[in-house]
Amino acid sequence: MALSVGRPRGGAIATAPIIAGPPVPLPTAVHPTEHKGETLNVVVHADGAVMIEGSPLSDSVAVAGYLAARASATRSLLILIQADRDVLYRDLERVLTACRTSGASEIALAADLRPAS
């Protein structure tokens, strides 16, 4: 499950459901959005460490470079950010900035599904 928060270059960031268990505790949301196409999973741990598809990246320059290379190689790429619910905003903001500048077609923040009241 993911939460819609805006889109690169002036639109809305898309959201996507998590099928398998997430690698970090996620925030909750009520309304999921489905997505089709290639998805690149980015995990932001509570301590600010970033992993992309299971590989750790040392700094925001490495994250931005990796994301830009993947976005230029794929016509329709969804970057799905799985951020620990306890991550500091400054650490998440660095990843969001790298995503926005990468040229990816969509960016999503993952969330656990919370039943509607």
What is the secondary structure topology, with strand pairs?
Layout lengths: L1 E2 L24 E2 L8 E7 L5 E3 L2 E3 L2 H14 L3 E7 L5 H14 L3 E5 L1 E2 L4
Parallel strand pairs: 2-8, 3-6, 6-7
Antiparallel strand pairs: 1-7, 3-4, 4-5
Helix pairs in contact: 1-2
Describe the structure.
The strands form two sheets. The protein has a six-stranded mixed sheet, covered by helices on one side. Strands 2-8 form a two-stranded parallel ribbon. It has 117 residues and is α/β, with parallel strands linked by helices. It has helices spanning 60-73, 89-102; strands at residues 2-3, 28-29, 38-44, 50-52, 55-57, 77-83, 106-110, 112-113. Mean pLDDT is 80; it is low at 1-15. It has a single domain (2-113), classed as Nucleotidyltransferase, domain 5.
Low-confidence stretches: 1-15
Q: Please name the CATH architecture.
A: 2-Layer Sandwich
* Shape by Cα distribution: globular
Name the strands of the widest sheet in spatial order: 1-7-6-3-4-5
Features:
single chain; alpha/beta; two-stranded parallel sheet; six-stranded mixed sheet; Nucleotidyltransferase, domain 5; disordered N terminus; 117 residues; 24% helix
Quick synopsis:
The chain is an alpha/beta fold and 117 residues long. It has helices at 60-73, 89-102; strands at residues 2-3, 28-29, 38-44, 50-52, 55-57, 77-83, 106-110, 112-113. The protein contains two helices and eight strands.
